[in-house]
Design brief:
This protein is about 35% helix and about 30% strand. The chain is of the alpha+beta class. Strands 1, 2, 3, 4, 5, 6, 7, 8, 9, 10, 11, 12 and 13 form a 13-stranded mixed beta sheet that branches. It binds coenzyme A. Coenzyme A binds near residues 187, 266, 268, 291 and 295.
Amino acid sequence: MASTAERHVPVVLDLWQFRAQDLGEMLEEETAAWREELHWDFRPSAQLVRRFVDAHALNGYVLVIDDQVAGYSYYVCEEHKGLVGDLYVRKKFRTAGNERKLLGAVVDHLIGARYVKRIESQLVLSRSLDSGPLPGASFARPYPRYFMEIDAAVGAKLPARALEEVVLDQWTERWQDETAHLIASAYRGHVDSEINDQYRSASGARRFLYNIVQHPGCGTFYEPAACVAVIENTGKLCGASLTSMVAEDSGHVTQICVAPATKGQGVGYELLRRSLGALAVAGAKTVSLTVTAANQDAVRLYQRVGFSIERQFSAFVWEGF
Ligand SMILES: CC(C)(COP(=O)(O)OP(=O)(O)OC[C@H]1O[C@@H](n2cnc3c(N)ncnc32)[C@H](O)[C@@H]1OP(=O)(O)O)[C@@H](O)C(=O)NCCC(=O)NCCS
């Protein structure tokens, strides 16, 4: 018979060995955590995980303790990049050691895969990863980030500001290509393009846009609250805010940026004000966004309009292995 110590030893197993029903209780707990802590409906994502697990189409690992599923993590690869898609350890098993063990299995695997040159992760719910040594520490860089939230009713009542030579309109798909170019120019030399390498080029930004418009990872894209700012004389795009509904009563700003030459004139404020108003009309009671702590211009703007920091977490990038 196994000793007490042996019984509690966590084991990491390949996700392929599991069926969706094995992960059922854990995914239900995770869904409740997203709802309580982030006002986010995780059910569509959990459903995708179940479907892909049963199709043996998801790569990752499961942490097993005392014959119970204690947690899981999965990753996806896009060309040279590995993305840690999710990592969740159940509350009763949640320790920094268990979270790191699971992340370590993913990171060690990806570092060992010859085609992977870079790994990115943004695990909003995993707090214990922020302290202590990370897996693959010599290749890792942490970027502190904030999850911020505003009462949508407050956002909907913000006073309008007059803009000079810039008009706002609703974003539609016809702006997709110009928005990709705008993102690449707004994030040139910006800390967020160290965290997400898709921001470094128009082609990368196109993939980023495709993901937020088509996939449910960042909620359901909500076009009526997405806005463009356009230079009146030329019709050229100089700012954009993109939005999604992450629950029936909760919105999210997935992207906001202003062209370098137009910054500091109130365009970011107006985009945000208009998006918040439209999200409130759509039924949002709260609106959230994430921002890098070092991005002080943006943090100041958000705090000025009434967002508050609800959580701190870290984005991680592993490179140079
Ligand atoms: C963050 C960002 C969207 C803000 O947009 P912006 O148009 O520059 O923001 P605003 O002009 O509305 O507000 C910024 C500052 O200009 C000031 N301002 C606003 N209207 C003004 C006006 N009419 N005249 C002079 N100054 C004005 C504001 O007071 C604010 O100053 P403060 O930060 O000292 O309080 C923009 O800087 C950007 O695109 N950054 C790069 C991408 C990015 O970081 N996006 C956010 C990721 S989470």
